[in-house]
Amino acid sequence: MKTERKYEIDWLRILLILSVFLFHVGMIFNSWDWHIKNETQYPGLRYIMSFLHYWRMPMLFFISGVGTYFALGKRKIGAYVKERTNRLIIPLIFGIFLLVPIQVYMERTEQYSSLWNFYLHLFDGIYPSGNFSWHHLWFLVYLFFCSMLIIPFIKFYQSNKSLKFKLFLQRTIHSRFGLYLFVVPLLISQIILRPYFPDETHDFVNDWSYITLDFIYFLYGFILLSNDKFIREIYNKRHGMMIMAAFFTIIIYAASHIFPKEIIGTVWDVSSLFLSWFLCLSLVGYAQIWLRIDSKWRKIGNEMIYPFYLLHQPVIVFLGYYIVQFDVNDFIKFLMVLLSSFILTITLYFLVIRPSKYLRIIFGVKKIIPITSYHQLAIQQFIRSKLNKAS
Q1: Up-side HSE of residue 262: CA atoms within 13 Å toward CB?
Q2: Angle between helices 151-158 and 208-224 (to 10 degrees)
């Protein structure tokens, strides 16, 4: 399997996690229920945050699918499972016991005298009624599940049995409206499952409509974003996809003025599916122009963004708890939470996690090759080249 680095995918992943960070800062100030809230809340934020919510996590699963393709590389399935377990389950376990309790404790400081006292009650029920939770780490659970669920398809896709399927994919994708048809399985899955699992719970047990949606995006990423010809097709149709995304965005926000009250919820649900799919494709298409570049910042950001995701929410909740109590303008509070959380999260990564061999494992950071190894390799290659010339 080809393992050529796709820089635009790295940049998209970085930008998406940063959008998650902004989303969670916004949760303090909007009207939705969250761990901590500002005294004054702004219902108008829901329009921006709803728009982000429709597509940012589906797109994360979309690009995680191609990430799994490259994680697989030339590995056998057993090695692939081990790699996915190390990168996802180890950070999940440590995060549940080291990071998430900080968030729940800050939400319930009036009930416990200290964080240690809260830990003594950590297993008193399941959140939200109890204390035990995986909170924002649900993404790791779902991503691991998708990574395991796709294994039979990987075996099929690598075998000669998949030739007809691949030819069918090529004909479909290169047809005029082929990429549009990929929204149909997304729609069918929700028609079947949403009546039984209407709410996005992130508890895995009662969330099967959204898990199925995430897996389909994951599978699409594995298929589409690993193939340069398919990416080229996405690039060629990026303008049309963006127009479709804009159209369904307008439908969502104009629905209450156009459609009868009884069907507005259905219009939102259906339109959000189309918006999500078309926007994901168009952003991948435009990324071929804007983000297909390499730099030291991509390398730094690509390594940092996973521990940044793990750390960002407990940091936001911890700092936000105190900042919302300041007697200052709400916009100043927002900037204080935004900047202080961003700086502290990055500082924790560079000063605490990155230098530690053990914390790098816990936070899913890949092993650094020591600088001396690079020097030794360069010297060996130099000597070989000189010997070859001399001979």
Answers
A1: 0
A2: 20
> Tokens for 364?
């899913």
Which tens digit of pLDDT belongs to each residue from 53-97?
Answer: 999 999 999 999 998 888 887 788 999 999 999 999 999 999 999
Angle, vertex CA 22, rays to CA 21 and CA 23, nearest 5: 90
Q: How far is CA 121 from the centre of its chain?
A: 31
Q: Is 119 left (phi over 0), alpha (psi -120 to 50) or beta?
A: alpha
3-state secondary structure of 324: coil
- The whole-angstrom separation of Cα 266 and Cα 279 is 20
Tell me 137's DSSP state: G
Burial of 363 (0-12, 13-18, 19+ CB in 10 A): buried
> What are the two backbone dihedrals, phi and then psi, of residue 83, each rounded to the nearest 5 degrees?
-65, -45
How many residues would you count in the chain?
391
Structure tokens at 125: 């029920």
Number of other CB atoms surrounding residue 326 within 10 Å: 10
Residue % of the chain over a pLDDT of 90: 87
Alpha carbons 241 and 161: distance in angstroms, whole number:
32
DSSP-based three-state secondary structure for 200: coil
